[in-house]
Amino acid sequence: QVQLVQSGGGLAQVGGSLSLSCQMWEDAFPIFTMGWYAKRPGFQRELVAAITPNGDINYVDSAKGRFTISRDYARKEVNLQMNNLKPEDTAVYYCNARRPVGSATMDLWGEGTQVNVSS
Prior knowledge:
Elements: E1 4-8, E2 10-13, E3 18-24, E4 33-39, E5 46-51, E6 57-59, E7 67-72, E8 77-82, E9 91-101, E10 104-109, E11 113-118
Parallel strand pairs: 2-11
Antiparallel strand pairs: 1-3, 3-8, 4-5, 4-9, 5-6, 7-8, 9-10, 9-11
């Protein structure tokens, strides 16, 4: 069974920085689009940033200029560097791995990591 193992996160003050990492125990890592989603209380899980196998990157507007997603093919890892944190960044962050399988989509999820930003 493919696993996504998350690390990082924790507590930061407004304006501070945190990083998240997600390691994929799967040799097929290079063909997956990797992403980070945030789940805030009372809201649905939403995409924060994603990076395709080709390196194309997409950010939610609120993350642009503050967050950086990257992937390390040797370590089979995707990282999210979060700078200039705001209270509204407080959420549980989930790592996602996605790839098409025929006409369907395979979605894999990490266990979630809590990020708290205090003012």
